[in-house]
Amino acid sequence: MRNLLSALALIVIPGATLPCPALAADSLQQQVSAVLAEAGPGTRWGVVVADAEGKEVVAIDPEGRYVPASNTKLYTTAAAFWKLGLPSLQEPDQAGRTSAYLLAHGKPGPDVVLIGRGDARLSSAADCKIDCLSALADKIVGRTRKVHDVIADDSAFEDQRWSPGMSWNNIPTDDGTGVSALSIDDNVAILKVIPPAAPGKPPAIAAPAYFSVINWATSDNDTAAPPLSFERMPGSRTILLKGNIIPGSNPRNLRLGIDDPAEYAAWHLARMLRERGVTVSGRVGKEKVSATTTPAQEAESAARAAAIAANVASEDKPALVPPPLIEDLTIINKVSQNLHAELLLRRLGQQEAFIGSIESGQKVVTAMLTQAGLKPTQYSFSDGSGMSTYNRVAPRGTVTFLRWTQTQPWGPNFTATLPIGGVDGTLKNRFKGTSLEGRIMAKTGTLNATNALAGFLTTKSGKVLTFAAYANDVPDGTRATQIMDKALVLIAESN
């Protein structure tokens, strides 16, 4: 634990006297159990807290198997530190670059082939400053004013846009957007809903032309009316807008998940080229050799692949290199970014296989946890973000894993990616005004009937404890997060 102790400035209080360790532990466990019992019947709790020497001061169902929700991101991001190494994470992300190739085929203008390699931060925003798709568009304009097809290629990853065990109702939302080696704008589009000044008229809408919108929304002063919502069937580009928005209120931005991110990226690039005066005379879409349906299409796709292979080593091509990957690991843990975690898992999988996938990524995670000393019964994962309800962890396994991270040279860097209670990220509004404000660094987790928190806390006396707390099967209306926080504050003030 040396790395973490130095990172959190552990305070040693000379001459402190403690009651009998066995009695103190039993007493604290009883107190914690009493707090957790405030949740009432139904909620299943698993809590383990260990001191700097690894002694468990609280152990409630330590080997139980719990849905970890976004606690899964702890394992995914740590695997990146473990597999890729800190130095490579701190350098510009060459492996994640996005490239655009101009391929001549005797048509009116060359084809543009946009190739993604797992970049999580590519942006089409008008005010984009870093990792901007517009920079590729500008380079293409500098070479030609006519192009034929604009094709997206995301074949660096297997076509696994959603993980096993993810709820289908999340697919239309920004929590469940599709995963692709070619992603843009976090694979989210904005539907802006603008209410009229007076009731009686439907609200105005603004959305990318990529979607069509059926507007069934109303605008009146009935505060009991169903609020704004939208529906979209998986695979469809038609949005059904429903519900009510109060006249004269502020516009609302609804976040729409993208099912086919590579196609969406190609659409954006074609739009940018047209805005710059480039004629796009062919089709705009996604292509993989394995997905062709006719001999002619297969031959054309194979020709593109051969042309790209012949020019891969060329420096004379437009390309974007993302910022260092460690910055994205911080985003993943601080704000709990699902898409970025899934992209990271697949990129780790490319270390094991030519094409990134969920399965190859999990091989890396499993190898890391084997080295960390976890038992196979203490974990099983179906994704990298925690959106899958198939994921399971044991509280004791999580504490073992977290303590192991602090024996690694990258331990302090990993810990620095975590939210800080009352300060930032998903813990910004938790632990404020308590003894743990600014003294707990932990990853949150929230899913249907599930709450999780795991990480490190500094007690009132200055001890550093490692903890994992899970609430599963939480009944509707139960304030499990507040009860969990109350128990952790109790633990911090009792040590």
The mean pLDDT is 90
Count of discrete structural domains: 3
Structural class: alpha+beta
- First-to-last CA distance: 18 Å
Second rung of CATH, namely the architecture of the largest domain: 3-Layer(aba) Sandwich
| Biggest sheet statistics | 5 strands, antiparallel
Shape: globular
Tell me the helix content: 25-40%
Question: Can you give a write-up of this model?
Answer:
- This protein is globular.
- Helices cover 30% and strands 19% of the residues.
- Helix 5 (133-141) packs across helix 6 (261-275) and helix 9 (338-349) packs across helix 10 (358-372).
- It has 3 domains: 2-89 and 324-493, 3-Layer(aba) Sandwich (Beta-lactamase), CATH 3.40.710.10; 94-161 and 261-320, 3-Layer(bba) Sandwich (D-tyrosyl-trna(Tyr) Deacylase, Chain: A); 168-257, no CATH class.
- The model is unreliable at 5-25 and 289-293 (pLDDT under 50).
- The chain starts with a helix and ends with a helix.
- It contains 13 helices and 20 strands.
Task: Fill in the keyword field for this structure.
single chain, 495 residues, alpha+beta, Beta-lactamase, D-tyrosyl-trna(Tyr) Deacylase, Chain: A, 3 domains, 5-stranded antiparallel beta sheet, 5-stranded mixed beta sheet, 13 helices, 20 strands, 30% helix, globular
In short:
With 495 residues, this protein is α+β, with helices and mostly antiparallel strands. It is built from 13 helices and 20 strands.
